[in-house]
Design goal:
The chain has helices at residues 20-33, 41-45, 51-62, 73-86, 90-95, 102-119, 130-137, 140-143, 188-197, 203-210, 223-229, 233-236, 247-250, 270-284. The protein is mainly α. It folds into two domains: 20-62, Arc Repressor Mutant, subunit A (Orthogonal Bundle); 125-294, no CATH class. The longest helix has 18 residues, at 102-119. It is elongated. The two termini are 25 Å apart. The structure holds a DNA duplex (21 and 21 nucleotides). This is Duplicated homeodomain-like superfamily protein. Its main location: nucleus. Residues 10-66, 67-117 form the HTH myb-type domain.
Length: 295
DNA sequence: AAGGACACCAACCGCTGGATA
DNA sequence: TTATCCAGCGGTTGGTGTCCT
């Protein structure tokens, strides 16, 4: 690809907060012309703004279908569950929340939900308790093949930092989930398929393993709150029934017939999930790695 | 009352992939 | 096939309001 020129003359366009007058111009333009080529909008609407800036103002603030009130507990729970499942794919998550934009969801996550999880002692990236992450960290040596360790460590078996419970070191990432997520809508299959079809983020490949595996998820700590909030049928309709097999939601090319190992029911660590997943990919798709062997 | 710390969120930046000439 | 344009995306920044000392 050739070098892309700037979308507008950045030195001479206005930046910063939008005025009511500018908003009115965008609204008037969209009302009469609809949404089309945003690069032409500033010129046609009489705005001294970058077209991209106009598009963002419309999509994130002016669109008539947007909600401007605060997030409800149900919306928050959905965001948390989707984030645990597919990572920071804000646009995909926002599509499941009518009236919310990816920017809204992202901001709410960064300012509220991330901190909320941290305060509860849960890592907002992996959605696992910090204590478990620390113990899993001690097991890294145990799951790295000997020939991949630094030379000076190859004769060492699991280090002194290893978790006392050896069952954690041989976890099967495809094991059955032990605890249903309190909110996991039926649309999840679709969203997860969308996530898997995208190549822009590595999250999906990790998520499909990570999603059903943790019995210690954030919502375990919120049962009381959640039960209070979800009192009407429309809320409850999106909940999996008690004991429902959440493998239905984990989709994305995982062969759950691999659950033949009768392993402990404790969860798989984030790192283990990645390493196990990569090993499985090597077995399933050896041709994918052909090109890398030269480097 | 002042001002520093913090929280919130609108807006920007830079990158990517799809469409098209 | 290549170059270009555009929309969409996620990460980051900066302005503003609120709280606390």
């Amino acid at each position: 690809m050739g070098r892309r020129p700037p979308c507008c003359d950045k030195l001479h366009v206005k930046k910063g907060p939008w005025t009511a007058e500018e908003d009115a111009k965008i609204l008037a333009y969209v009302a009469s012309h609809g949404i089309g080529n945003w690069t032409l909008v500033p010129q046609k609407a009489g705005l001294n703004r970058c077209g991209k800036s106009c598009r963002l103002r419309w999509t994130n603030y002016l669109r008539p279908d947007l909600k401007h009130d605060s997030f409800t507990p149900v919306e928050e729970e959905l965001i948390l569950n989707y984030h645990q499942a597919i990572g920071s794919r804000w646009s995909l998550i926002a599509k499941q929340l009518p009236g919310r934009t990816d920017n809204d969801v992202k901001n709410h996550w960064n300012t509220k939900l991330k901190k909320k999880l941290s305060k509860m002692g849960i890592d907002p990236i992996t959605h696992k308790p910090f204590g478990q992450l620390l113990s899993d960290y001690g097991n890294i040596n145990a799951i790295i093949p000997t020939n991949m360790r630094p030379l000076d460590q190859r004769n060492q078996e699991p280090s002194e930092f290893s978790h006392a419970d050896s069952s954690l070191t041989m976890m099967d990432p495809y094991q059955e989930p032990q605890t249903p997520m309190s909110l996991m809508p039926a649309q999840f299959q679709a969203i997860n398929e969308a996530a898997s079809s995208s190549t822009s983020s590595p999250a999906a490949s990790v998520v499909q393993v990570n999603l059903p595996s943790s019995p210690s998820i954030w919502s375990d700590y919120l049962v009381g709150d959640h039960e209070q909030e979800c009192t009407n049928e429309s809320d409850l309709s999106i909940l999996p029934s008690k004991g429902e097999n959440l493998n239905n939601y984990s989709g994305v090319g995982v062969d759950h017939t691999k659950n033949s190992l009768d392993v402990a029911t404790t969860s798989v660590s984030f790192v283990e999930s990645i390493l196990n997943r990569e090993r499985q990919m090597e077995l399933d798709f050896p041709q994918l790695l052909d090109g890398y062997s030269e480097y």
